[in-house]
Amino acid sequence: MKSEKYTQLLKEARALLQDETDLTASLANVSALLKTHFNFWWVGFYLVKNNELVLGPFQGPVACTRIAYGKGVCGTAWKEKASVLVPDVHEFPGHIACSAASNSELVVPVLRNGEVLAVLDIDSTEFNHFDDADRENCERLCALLSDLF
Description:
28% strand, alpha+beta, single chain, globular
């Protein structure tokens, strides 16, 4: 069932992104797609600006506004240029607790030519919520987004 949801989500994302040139509009709609399909606690983007991650379009409660390079799960994904899947954020060294309700997290970088342009951040109130299927499909989604930057 999860794979079917991702197949549909990716199809909808391609349709939404096809003729849209505005980055904010596109990231906002992708955040809404993920929230609608999976009802994640928080889903959104942090954009690389002036050597830090700055909050972009998101769905969910108020979030941290800026994250330093290498700090927390988002900063680690940026530094490593790789997805980071965290089953229990309370055990992640240096985790930044934007919300006490978050218990697991998946962060996927948006890459172009080996450079991180942004990260997709997804939080869940459930422990061990994310798996390799989530990571792989969110990596596919972020690959679609890389051309927007």
